[in-house]
Amino acid sequence: MNKHQTEKRRRNKSRKILTPLSRMLRRKEVREVTGLSDTTIWRLEKAGKFPRRIQLTENTVGWDEHGVRGWRESRKTVDDAA
Fold first, then answer.
1. What are the residues whose beta carbons fall under 8 Å from the beta carbon of 66, sequence distance 6 or more?
2. CA distance 43 to 24
3. CB-side exposure of 80: number of CA atoms within 13 Å?
4. Is the alpha carbon torsion for 53, 56, 60, 65 positive or negative?
5. Which residues 6+ apart lie within 8 Å of 27 measured at CB?
6. Contact 63, 54 (CB under 8 A)
7. Which ranges constitute the DSSP H helices of the chain?
8. Contact indicator for 55, 11 with CB cutoff of 8 Å
9. pLDDT in tens, 22-74
10. CA–CA separation, 1 and 63 (whole Å)
11. Whole-angstrom Cα Rg for the chain
């Protein structure tokens, strides 16, 4: 790899780091966006079919908004194909 390629790779990595953070959704918002119950969300998470919750504080969890909305969009694709 030459010097130009190395510099280009370094710049691309920094772009990924500098992307804006998405909003964190709390449990109520996730239920509203998805229409799923707490139990269904938990089951899908355990099965690896739904974005994982993120521990924000000792007593608070949230979900990445882009992940949840991306999951919802992927479900539209699955439903459309059926």
1. 22
2. 20
3. 6
4. negative
5. 38, 61
6. yes
7. 3-17, 27-34, 38-46, 65-81
8. no
9. 799 999 999 999 999 999 999 999 999 999 999 999 999 999 999 999 999 99
10. 39
11. 17
Q: Which residue has the tokens 């510099």?
A: 7
Three-state secondary structure call for residue 60: strand
At residue 47, what is the residue type?
A: A
Q: Residue 16: is its pLDDT beyond 90? A: no
Encoded amino acid at 18, one letter: L
Model confidence, pTM: 0.67
**Beta carbons within 8 Å of 75's beta carbon, 6+ residues apart:** none
Name every residue whose Cβ is closer than 8 Å to that of residue 49 and which is 6 or more positions away in sequence: none
Tokens describing residue 39:
């139990």
Is residue 40 within 8 Å of residue 51, measured between CB atoms?
no
- The answer to whether the beta carbons of residues 25 and 62 sit under 8 Å apart is yes
